[in-house]
Write a structure and sequence with these properties.
single chain, alpha/beta, Rossmann fold, N-(1-d-carboxylethyl)-l-norvaline Dehydrogenase, domain 2, 2 domains, eight-stranded mixed beta sheet, about 45% helix, globular, binds acetoacetyl-coenzyme A
Length: about 280
């Protein structure tokens, strides 16, 4: 299965990052959003990120322009019809993802491989709503996609070998290191990361230490690039809240229960960096 053309559903933080690394690797990319303004915002983010790479000498100005030239934005799912691979990166909500894939299933050629960038939902449950569960897998990228080296490739009980190999080959071709996981909520990374982040919120809520000291403790004590509260702000508190709810629903284990403070902050619109305030203030 040769992949030349990649369709990406959703051009937010993750979708635009996946579009960026795909275009840089030489793929033709069609990015589908619900409004033109959304993919335009995503493409502006890509342009800014590529400019950073040019500034650092990691890309030439010509390579940046070539990559930008491989990107097309659209609001029509039918424009993804002849894509060899379609990757979905919309909100972490099962109904929304199923809706997207049902639409794509109607319009895409029979050979098109489908992949979800979900970080927590069972892929097989989404795939079951399409006519091609054997051509369906998980391709889980990490934020920020252009910098993070890992992709989790997730095989469901239905994913066939050719699809798995094609998806793995694609992730490697965009410069990522691949780990393979079974279709269990959170796969490898989030299964271990999310309880740690929730524990950090609980520790802060219980008054163990200041937010700065919790973050400095884990940065300098464990060599993490970011402390847990900074990382929560970076990922988005709403995203972690949705993931925790999905895990709790699946495992019925208190480790995955959302701390009350996290829920209060999400309901108050304190979502982290993207909303200007989370555990820290980004308004300046
Ligand atoms: N494109 C291009 N350049 C970028 C960039 C992007 N998208 N984002 C950051 N950079 C650049 C910065 O501008 C900076 O450049 P300068 O050195 O010229 O200033 C450089 O990369 C380094 O960035 P920073 O100085 O801001 O800080 P850093 O050295 O800490 O690196 C980081 C940033 C790579 C994000 C690092 O902090 C890190 O690895 N953080 C942890 C991220 C993480 O854990 N991600 C996983 C989240 S979990 C997830 O994604 C799964 C999920 O499903 C929820």
């Amino acid at each position: 299965m040769e992949i030349k053309k990649v369709g990406i559903i959703g051009c937010g933080q993750m979708g635009s990052g996946i579009a960026q690394v795909s275009a840089v690797a030489g793929y033709s990319v069609i990015s589908r959003e619900i409004e033109d303004a959304f993919w335009q915002k995503g493409f502006a983010r890509i342009e800014k990120s590529l400019a950073k790479f040019v500034e650092k000498g990691k890309l030439t100005a010509a390579q940046k322009e070539e990559a930008m030239g491989r990107l097309i934005g659209t609001t029509k799912m039918t424009d993804l019809a002849d894509c060899d691979l379609v990757i979905e990166a919309v909100i972490e909500n099962a109904d929304e993802k199923v809706k997207m894939f049902k639409e794509a299933d109607k319009t895409c050629k029979p050979e098109t491989i489908f992949a979800s960038n979900t970080s927590s939902l069972p892929i097989g449950d989404i795939a079951a709503h399409t006519s091609r569960p054997q051509q369906f897998c998980g391709l889980h990228f990490f934020n920020p996609v252009p910098l993070m080296k890992l992709v989790e490739v997730v095989r469901t009980i239905s994913t066939d070998d050719a699809t798995y190999q094609a998806a793995k080959g694609f992730a490697e071709s965009v410069g990522k290191v691949v780990v393979t996981a079974k279709d269990s909520p959170g796969f490898i990374v989030n299964l271990l990361l999310v309880p740690y982040l929730l524990d950090a919120v609980r520790a802060f809520e219980a008054g163990l230490a200041s937010r700065e000291d919790i973050d400095t403790g884990m940065k300098l004590g464990c060599g993490h690039p970011m402390g847990p509260l900074t990382l929560l702000d970076f990922i988005g508190l709403d995203t972690i809240y949705y993931i925790a709810e999905i895990f709790f629903d699946e495992f019925k284990d208190g480790r995955y229960a959302s701390p009350p403070l996290l829920k209060r902050m999400v309901n108050a619109g304190l979502l982290g960096k993207k909303s200007g305030r989370g555990f820290y203030d980004y308004s300046a």
